[in-house]
């Protein structure tokens, strides 16, 4: 459970870094490639999160690595009280509750929007006409998106304006903007606690509309004036649905009209813009992926480790890694009260500086009971790095930890 919380914490940090970076470089991207290039730069966020899920290369561990024995007994922390072990579960429960609440609220907002449309009637132009107007026209739906217009659509717009409005929504559907909104909703559910995500979502939807405007009038520059007139005729006074691409958007009206005039300027060639955005995503994603090395946790417990077993084989080289300090894991309170025992076998990667890197569970006789406390304790350990050819090198150790209810080492 603590591994999930740590992944959420690291992902949240990188999500914030990505949002701040995109905000900082937006004026440059806007000047170089226009609204379309800015909108494509938002790919940075999902790619950074994906990079954090990719495995990091680890040191191979063979039979030649030493095996250390270690016994954990019910004990007290340095403060003199039993160390609590239920907080990871409590935090995970709080995160799950927030995620479920955000999902339910979004679902209710979507349902409210769809009920507000009333009955739908197919039109000859391929769109659907609603009997109500909760904020139309819009592209509604995720898997089977439909262009839905309001009951006064024909009266409000003339034929040329209606074609521009429908073309705008078709561009949303053709470029998968409805799927992007679904991904945004998923991010908002998972990272509901992130302080920057709500602001980033508003910026994303703004850039989505600006990019769609640019695509719509880009092939017919002479229709900019007509397009601006259609925008002015439409005023969005209803709350937006989380799974819809709206034509009308009052807060963006002024910026959208201003961007129509700026789109006349010569932009960076399309291919150069793609290379620029791809390079940005790869660079930031690579840094995020490379940052996944182990992170040490502090501890106030200080006891000596048991010596290595007599039949342990040395690491290939001049000297094997040697333990300096191995504070034992605390006994989980629930396991102690239920008299549970077990053994956890860890793989501990040790860097050339002697610091503990990646820690993972290879085997556990009582899975899920002692895993988290064992990993937390292993990240507090310190070592002298292995020596090969007179220089410190990285290595790995396989370390079994026995959780017993007394201080007697179990028989081999």
UniProtKB/TrEMBL annotation:
One of its GO terms (cellular component) is membrane. Keywords: Membrane, Transmembrane, Transmembrane helix. The chain crosses the membrane at residues 39-57, 268-290. Residues 316-412 form the TonB C-terminal domain. NCBIfam families: tonB_Cterm. Its main location: membrane. GO terms for biological process: transmembrane transport. This is TonB family protein. It is a single-pass membrane protein. Signal peptide: none annotated. InterPro entries: Beta-lactam_resp_regulator (IPR052173), Peptidase_M56 (IPR008756), TonB/TolA_C (IPR006260), TonB_C (IPR037682). It comes from the Bacteria. It holds the Pfam family Peptidase_M56. It is found in: Membrane.
């Amino acid at each position: 459970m603590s591994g999930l919380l740590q992944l959420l914490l690291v992902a949240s940090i990188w999500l914030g870094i990505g949002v701040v970076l995109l905000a900082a470089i937006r004026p440059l991207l806007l000047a170089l490639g226009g609204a379309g290039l800015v909108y494509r730069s938002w790919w940075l966020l999902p790619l950074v999160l994906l990079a954090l899920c990719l495995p990091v290369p680890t040191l191979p561990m063979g039979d030649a690595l030493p095996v250390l024995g270690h016994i954990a007994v019910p004990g007290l922390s340095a403060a003199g009280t039993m160390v609590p072990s239920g907080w990871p579960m409590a935090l995970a429960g709080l995160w799950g509750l927030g995620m479920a609440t955000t999902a339910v609220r979004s679902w209710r907002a979507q349902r409210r929007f769809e009920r507000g449309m009333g009955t739908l009637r197919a039109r000859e132009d391929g769109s659907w006409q609603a009997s109500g107007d909760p904020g139309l026209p819009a592209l509604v739906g995720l898997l089977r998106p439909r262009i839905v217009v309001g009951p006064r659509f024909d009266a409000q717009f003339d034929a040329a304006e209606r074609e521009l409005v429908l073309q705008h929504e078709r561009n949303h559907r053709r470029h998968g903007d409805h799927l992007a909104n679904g991904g945004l909703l998923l991010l908002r559910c998972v990272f509901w606690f992130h302080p920057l995500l709500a602001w980033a979502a508003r910026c994303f939807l703004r850039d989505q509309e600006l990019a769609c405007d640019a695509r719509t009038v880009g092939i017919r520059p002479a229709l900019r004036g007509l397009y601006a007139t259609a925008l002015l005729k439409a005023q969005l006074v209803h709350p937006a649905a989380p799974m819809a691409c709206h034509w009308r958007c009052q807060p963006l009206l002024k910026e959208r009209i201003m961007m129509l005039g700026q789109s006349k300027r010569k932009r960076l060639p399309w291919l150069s813009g793609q290379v620029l955005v791809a390079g940005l995503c790869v660079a930031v994603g690579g840094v995020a992926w490379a940052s996944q090395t182990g992170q040490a946790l502090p501890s106030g417990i200080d006891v000596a480790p048991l010596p290595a077993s007599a039949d342990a084989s040395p690491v290939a080289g001049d000297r094997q890694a040697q333990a300096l300090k191995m504070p034992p894991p605390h006994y989980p309170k629930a396991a102690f009260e239920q008299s549970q025992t077990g053994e956890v076998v860890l793989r501990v990667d040790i860097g050339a500086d002697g610091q503990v890197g990646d820690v993972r569970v290879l085997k556990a006789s009582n899975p899920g009971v002692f895993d988290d406390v064992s990993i937390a304790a292993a990240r507090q350990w310190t070592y002298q790095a292995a020596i090969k050819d007179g220089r410190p090198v990285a290595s790995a150790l396989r370390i079994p930890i026995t959780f017993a209810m007394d201080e007697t080492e179990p028989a081999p």
